[in-house]
Specification:
- This protein is of the alpha/beta class and about 300 residues long.
- The protein has one domain: Rossmann fold (3-Layer(aba) Sandwich), CATH 3.40.50.
- About 30% of the residues lie in helices and about 20% in strands.
- It has six helices and eleven strands.
- It has helices spanning about 1-25, 45-55, 80-95, 130-140, 160-165, 275-290, and strands spanning about 65-70, 100-105, 120, 145-150, 170, 180-185, 200-205, 210, 220-225, 245-255, 255-260.
- α2 (about 45-55) crosses α3.
- The longest helix has 25 residues, at about 1-25.
- It is globular and about 65 Å long.
- The termini are far apart.
- The structure holds zinc ion.
- Zinc ion binds near residues 78, 152, 207 and 266.
- Zinc ion binds near residues 78, 207 and 266.
Length: about 300
């Protein structure tokens, strides 16, 4: 009896092993999880350039300001751009006293927005906000607070019309690639936010988006556009807009609140530049309500 059982056990194990091996051959190996999206550590030389570009002064804040800098990415991950903008915002707040920042990619931050004066969407992509958190963000802004969008902040709310309208447009390709240097026109150079730029036109290296609806000039002040009179800038493949209106940055009202969108910010170079940091600071202070600026359409 014992011997029969032992033979049975050996046969059973052998059969199971064969079946397991066969099964293993049919099942593709489990996909390794995607690498975590973590902004890279900045080198000493990049850090020095960011520090050197931080504006010396800011508009006087009406009270102590706190900003949530949020960089979650479910789609494309602009790691270098995110790292540099996070650091630039932190340093400009420290140096000028305009605000302090909390930097995170944790959605739970949207459960406690009341302590903030503005939210910065730093290159977020394809955000998956719950209905509750989306409404919290909308109420936060409409109730009188601020929102700042950097570059890919327009690559999020395809299925949330109120969110897309709040930020002011949706990504529709980038005919102007990140390797190129493109021409820009400062609309209304005397505008308080545009005082960041020393000249009415300039060239700059960055990836620039084209926008589809709900982009419109009817509800905002456009600050910077592409300068299509520059031959390379005006002749890129994939330009779709019949009106040739390629805005890059704007401000607008949303309820009682304020919106600043800065299409610059794809590359690590952007916020190592003093004029770009000043532009980001000015727009952020507008969003906070500390820098008066006309957001009416023109
Ligand atoms: Zn980009």
């Amino acid at each position: 009896m014992k011997r029969t059982f032992s033979i049975w056990l050996i046969v059973a194990c052998f059969t199971t092993a064969i079946a397991w091996r066969a099964g293993a051959a049919d099942t593709p190996p489990a996909k390794p999880p995607p690498p975590p999206k973590v902004p890279p550590t900045l080198s000493e030389s990049v850090l020095k350039k960011i520090e050197a570009a931080v504006p010396a002064t800011a508009a006087k804040p009406k009270k102590a300001r706190r900003i949530l800098v949020f960089w979650r990415c479910e789609g494309f991950f602009h790691g270098d751009g995110i790292a540099v903008a996070n650091k630039a915002l932190e340093l400009m707040g420290q140096k000028t006293g305009a605000f302090q920042v909390d930097i995170t990619d944790d959605y739970a931050a949207f459960d406690n927005l009341a302590k903030y004066d503005a939210v910065v969407l730093n290159n977020t992509t394809q955000l998956k906000l719950t209905e509750e958190r989306a409404q919290a963000l909308l109420s936060f802004v409409r109730g009188g607070k601020g929102i700042v969008g950097i570059h890919a902040a327009t690559d999020n709310f395809y299925k949330w019309p109120d969110g897309a309208k709040m930020i002011g447009g949706l990504f529709d390709g980038h005919p102007w690639g990140g390797g190129g240097t493109w021409a820009f026109k400062v609309e209304d150079p005397g505008h308080p936010i545009n005082k960041a730029f020393p000249n009415a036109t300039f060239k700059f290296k960055d990836e620039i988006y084209q926008f589809k609806e709900p982009y419109t000039r009817a509800d905002r002040r456009v600050l910077v556009t592409l300068d299509l009179s520059d031959p390379a800038t005006g002749s890129q493949k994939g330009m779709k807009r019949a009106d040739n209106d390629y805005a890059v940055a704007w401000i607008k009202k949303e309820g009682q609140g304020r919106v600043f969108y800065c299409g610059f910010g794809h590359g690590a170079n952007v916020f190592q530049d003093a004029a770009m940091q000043q532009f980001l600071l000015n727009g952020t202070q507008f969003a906070l309500g500390d820098l008066e600026a006309d957001a009416s359409p023109k």
